[in-house]
Write a structure and sequence with these properties.
393 residues; globular; 15-stranded antiparallel β-sheet; mainly beta; disordered C terminus
Length: 393
């Protein structure tokens, strides 16, 4: 019996050895290496490495729904408006031997109706009588007019001290940082080419060439004259903007200035003036108020412009109160030509204050106010003529 058991065990061992040898002869199949997404902490929260590269990427955005009600400005207008907006942000950064190479773009899609669709110069605070229900739309059973807009808000490259592309103007300081509605202030994204020098301790200085025609918010304004015969001539170079800025633990401060050409031609009056210039200066300070609550801060800003009212946030047309309700709009122009052929630049100033307070870490309030006053030159059809003041809050 013991002999039989020994033979059986020996046979089993022999079979196991043969099976092991055959398994070793089979081709092996190794698992493909897994590319895990790694967190990139070099540039702040939300960045991750694109697999297989040294580039850090952050993808973000927001969705916004907004509604407003007010007075109807005509029989074809509605007394309300709505707006929906989707925003996508993509931020990519790569460390190089010559500094960080950054590319950033922000794209927006917006659908607006009513008040939002009939604003003047895109300013939600100024609503013109606007385009209401058209006869064709009413006949077809359609609703009041609406609009769908796409907007490349930002698209720039930063490489060391160089910024190129569509970016926030380096003239701007409080650029509606805390509010959806447009406060009358310098706030423009435009095509530019800038160089920024840093000096340590949070100090920096920037010189920027900016194409105001491509800007949002306050833009280049035109020229007005009797009969509307005047035009602005082309410029030889973009606007020149310079700024000096400091960012430290207590907050931030900035002093900025801009220079622009304002050449005029009026064939009817025989006026051709290529020596007109416009300029603007602005100073602002942001003070952090952690003694009230974490994240609290106060903005104070003042600006003055001569022949460059776009740097105060004025662009296109404006109106207020009864004049606007009756369907009239007063055009704002940087320069005017009177009936005698004399040219005159428009001047103006503005002040802005903004306070943010956190009631809880997730609940906050912003209180924002602005005031601006203009002194225009020749204003066709308006009482007072040259030098008429035009306040706006």
């Amino acid at each position: 019996m013991k002999l039989v058991k020994s033979l059986l065990l020996g046979s089993a061992a022999g079979i196991a050895a043969v099976a092991g040898a055959q398994a070793a002869d089979l081709p092996s199949r190794k698992a493909a290496p897994v590319e895990y997404v790694r967190v990139c902490s070099a540039y702040g929260a939300g960045f991750f490495y694109i697999p297989g590269t040294d580039t850090c990427l952050r993808v973000g955005g927001r969705v916004r729904a907004e509604y407003t009600i007010g007075s109807r400005y005509g029989d074809t207008n509605d007394g309300y408006g709505s707006r929906s907006r989707g925003r996508l942000n993509v931020d990519a950064r790569t460390a190089t031997a010559y500094g960080t190479l950054r590319t950033f773009f922000r794209y927006e899609l917006t659908v607006s109706s009513g008040f939002y669709n009939s604003t003047v110069g895109g300013n939600q605070g100024i609503v013109s009588p606007g385009a209401g229900r058209s006869n064709a739309a009413v006949a077809a059973g359609g609703l009041t007019s609406n609009s769908t807009a796409s907007n490349l808000d930002l698209a720039f490259i930063q490489f060391g001290p160089i910024t190129a592309g569509r970016a926030q103007s380096f003239f701007d300081f409080y650029a509606n940082d805390w509010t959806f509605s447009t406060v009358r202030t310098a706030d423009s994204r435009l095509n530019l080419l800038a160089y920024t020098a840093t000096f340590g301790s949070g100090f920096s200085a920037t010189i920027s060439l900016e194409d105001r025609i491509t800007g949002t918010g306050g833009r280049e304004n035109g020229v007005v004259s009797p009969g509307g015969a005047s035009t602005l001539l082309g410029t030889n170079f973009p606007d020149v903007v310079a700024s000096l800025r400091v960012d430290q633990g207590w907050g931030s401060a900035q002093l900025s200035a801009a220079l622009t050409q304002r050449s005029v031609n009026n064939v009817a009056l025989g006026v051709r003036n290529e020596d007109e210039w416009g300029f603007a200066v602005q100073g602002g300070v942001k003070v952090n108020l952690p003694m009230l609550a974490a994240g609290d801060a106060l903005f104070l800003q003042a600006a003055y412009a001569d022949g460059a009212l776009g740097y105060l946030g004025w662009g296109g047309a404006f109106g207020s109160g009864r004049i606007l309700a009756q369907g009239a709009q007063l055009t704002v122009n940087d320069i005017s030509v009177d009936v005698f052929g004399n040219t005159k630049t428009a001047t103006g100033w503005s002040v802005v204050a903004a306070l943010r307070h956190f009631w809880t870490p997730t609940l906050r309030s912003e209180l924002v106010a602005s005031y601006s006053e203009l002194k225009l030159g020749y204003v066709p059809g308006q009482p007072g003529g040259p030098g008429r003041g035009c306040p706006s809050a």
